[in-house]
Amino acid sequence: MKGLFTTLSKVTLQIKFKPSGRLYPTIALLAILAPLGLGCISPAAIQREEAPRKIVLQKPARAVASKELAVSPKPARRKERISDREELMAYQEAVRIFREEGRAQTAYDMLDAFLHMHPDSRYADDALLEQVRIMASLDKPREALRLARRLLRDYTNSPLRKKTFLLQGDISLGMEKWKDCVRSMDNALTLDLLPMERAEALDKRSVCLLKRKRYRQAFMGARDALLSSSAVGVSKEIGNEARKTLAQSAAGLGDKALADILAESDGTEPFVYLAMEQLRRMIEKGLYREGMNDLTDILTHYPGLAPQAGIDEAYDILSGHLLVQGDTIGAILPLSGRYQIYGEKALQGIQSALGLMSPLPPDESSPHFTLVTIDSGTDPLKAAQAVTDLAGKDHVLAIIGPLFSRTSKTAAQAAQKSNVPIITLSADPSIPKTGDNVFRRALSDSQQISSLVAAAHDRFMMTRFALLYPDTAYGREMMNRFWDELDKGGAEVTAVESFPPGVTDFGPQIRSLVGLDRKLSPEDKLLKENGADVKVKPIVDFDAIFIPAGFQTVGLLAPQLAFYDITNALLLGTDG
Known about the structure:
Blueprint: H1 2-9, E1 11-14, H2 24-33, E2 54-55, E3 67-68, H3 84-99, H4 104-117, H5 124-137, H6 141-154, H7 161-174, H8 178-189, H9 195-211, H10 215-228, H11 236-252, H12 255-262, H13 270-284, H14 288-301, H15 308-322, E4 328-333, H16 340-353, E5 370-375, H17 380-392, E6 398-400, H18 405-418, E7 422-424, E8 438-440, H19 445-459, E9 464-470, H20 473-489, E10 492-499, H21 507-514, H22 522-529, E11 544-547, H23 551-563, E12 570-573
Parallel strand pairs: 1-3, 4-5, 4-6, 6-7, 7-8, 9-10, 9-11, 11-12
Antiparallel strand pairs: 1-2
């Protein structure tokens, strides 16, 4: 208060009185000074003069100087602010030290001091963004993100917000914070980005969506990134990255989602990656004809857009399965091991059917075939590999074989996958259910019996039959099936006999079958006692003998039947 009193006591005011001579200003001044403890001012201290009049305040004895004060006092002087140019130079020096000299920490500290001294500088947001870059370069992503959030919070109208969002998203991408990356890029995309910035934001956003397994969104984002990358001035690298994301997103889509998006195709490059993925799946499933159709569609609707390497690879695979040799047949048979004899017999039948065993020169008008055989033994894996080799390397028109159920099943599966027709020789009725490329030459048990009885009855006019069967489950089942079929057609069974499995001497069964084990009649017995050569004659009261056994068994039976004078009966059998 003492200082204030001293100051005011030095003041000389000049106040113009109104013509009325009233002392309103003087009274007002006294009213102002009184509360400040300045005491009273005597009337003598006021000298009246002609207008303008002058009021003189007597200075106290301790005052040493006087100073005039205007009616409107000046504000107290504050420290002068440095110019914008000086601020810019300070900011640029810190940036230079970071970018040119690589002294990141020094530059960061300089920018920190700059922000502390000049928080309201027009370059404050620039300095803060540069600090974000410095922290990112020092591998301090968390600190970088903290500074980025501060910039976005404190400088809501800054033109640097879009760069901050982009940098924030880039840092989140490096930290594998996929969700934060997507959010930052979404914020950036709401702002007025340059073509390069927009393409970059779309590309990185799609990468993060791909990492989150949001395949549909990732594909759409990568599509936009690729289309944006075609703008002038955009790096080709962004377009290449977008293409990678398109391919990976397409691979992650389910079949239905892939087909749904592909149905919206506008013929632009992004959709070719969906078409290529659909083609890859067709090949993987062994649907080669469908795959060839897809390949044709790609070349028609996306000319020059599909990756050439992918096109060439797909064509090589498809042509290998579809461009077959029209005169080459494959055969897969057991040509070694304990079933070799069966394989060789089957091979002879195949060769005969193809006209390869004819002594006559080939007829020019008849088709000429080449037969490629592979030994499968009894190994299911070898049978499957044989199919793959015949289809992929020899390009066969079709495959015949294998013989047995186990090898036929694996071969059928391989043939269906390779899209090559196969005719198995197995009697297993389930084999053809493998797929539409799988067929079975062998008849089922019921089919064999029906065909056999029909041929014997209708073609050869046979009505009487003998049944000689192995005492096994298969033998009994086939015997009953045959008998039932005969009953349906009105034929007659005149003799029935079974033999143990594995037996080689069928004498007892044959004698029983034709009655050679019966006793002599009294007349023949008397003749024999008198020295006559009396023999029991076989009763062959049948036209054919049904023997449901393998050809080896029938091969042993046939000469023994002839030994017992059974020569006029037709032998019927199965593939058993």
